[in-house]
C-alpha cells in the first residue's frame, strides 16, 4: 500500500481491522478493548461501527471538558495555522499568558511547562533536590499513590506491581501509608528533601485523606524544612470543583504538578512553584523541548476560559451531588458495595468483588467506565455533563452492579 492510500484509509477501518494493525505493528503494552473510538462530542463518543457511548471516563481523566470542547477546538485550529512550534529559547506570548492565569488561580507562583504528568513530577523531584542543601535527596511518598511511568516517577509510585523487574529504581524514596502522619515523621531524617503526595489518590482508588492529614504534612514539612509537593495531575484544573484539590483542604504546597485535563484534552503538563523556589530550576538544569508550546498554551488558556465562561466549577458541585445520591442509594440496597467515595468529578465505588465484569457489561450497554485496584469502579466524568446524562449513565451502572454475582 502506498502512503497516500494509508492516509486516506484513516477513519474507514472497522474495529476488527484496526485490531489487526495493532496486533501486527503496535507494542502490546496496554490492555485494550477491541473497540476503535473514532469521534466524540461532549460526553458522547462513537466507535467505528457507529455505536454511541456515554463516556464517564473520557480520556482517562484528560477530557474534563468532554470531547472536542468548542473553545479548545477553536483555539487549537487558529494556533496551528499561525505557529505550531517554537523552542523555549524564544519568548512565547501564549505561554506567558497561560502561566499568569494558572498563577492567579493557585498560589501566585511561577510555572514550568512540560508535556505530561510524569514529566511534571520528574521536574518536581529535580527541583526538590536542587532547592534543598546538597545532602538532602530523599523524598517520602505514599502507598497506593501513582506518579507516572518514567524512572523518577515510577520510583515515587509506592506500588510493588509497577516495580517488578525494572530495578534498580531511583534512590531515595521511602513510602508511608496514606493518612499516617506518625509513619511520615518516622521516615524523616537529615537527608530528606521533600514529601510528595496526591491530595486525593486517584489510581489508588479515589482515596480521600483523613481529616487533618494534609495539614499535618504541611506542618511536618515546615518543621523539618522540607518541600511539600502535591501531585494534582488527576485532581487539578477543576476536577474536584475547586481549581486545585488542595483548595478543599486549605493547605498550600510548595510545588504543584498538573497534566491530564490541563489543556482540555491536548497534551500538556506543568509544575507550579513559588517565586522563591522557582530560581533553583536554573538555566541548563532542566528543559522540555515541547513544553509550553503555542498549541498547548492556547489550549490551556481556552480550558480555563471555558470553565469560567460556563460556570463549570459550580456545575461540578451540582453533578457531584447527583452521583453521590445515586451511588449511596445503590449502596443501601446492594451489599456488593463496600464504600462510595465522591469528591467533585471523582467517583469511586469500592466493590466486594472484581470490577472488570462491570466495566465490560457497561461497555456492552453503551457506558464507558473504569475499574482501578481490581475492585474500585472509578468515574472521572466531564464537568459539563448534563444532569440527565448523569442519571442516564447511573441507570446503566446501577443496573449492571445490581445484576453482578454476589461475592462467593
Ligand atoms: C495520570 C497520573 C500521572 C501520570 O501522568 P502521565 O501524563 O500519564 O505521565 C501522574 N500522577 C497522577 C496523580 C496521575 O493521575
UniProtKB/TrEMBL annotation:
Pyridoxal 5'-phosphate binds at residues 117-118, 146, 231-234, 289. GO terms for molecular function: identical protein binding; N2-acetyl-L-ornithine:2-oxoglutarate 5-aminotransferase activity; pyridoxal phosphate binding. GO terms for biological process: L-arginine biosynthetic process. Keywords: Amino-acid biosynthesis, Aminotransferase, Arginine biosynthesis, Cytoplasm, Pyridoxal phosphate, Transferase. Pfam families: Aminotran_3 (PF00202). It is an enzyme of class 2 (transferase). Coiled coil: none annotated. It comes from the Bacteria. The keyword tRNA processing does not apply. Its EC number is 2.6.1.11. The modification N6-(pyridoxal phosphate)lysine is found at residue 260. SUPFAM superfamilies: PLP-dependent transferases. N(2)-acetyl-L-ornithine binds at residue 149. Pathway: Amino-acid biosynthesis; L-arginine biosynthesis; N(2)-acetyl-L-ornithine from L-glutamate: step 4/4. Homodimer. May also have succinyldiaminopimelate aminotransferase activity, thus carrying out the corresponding step in lysine biosynthesis. This is Acetylornithine aminotransferase.
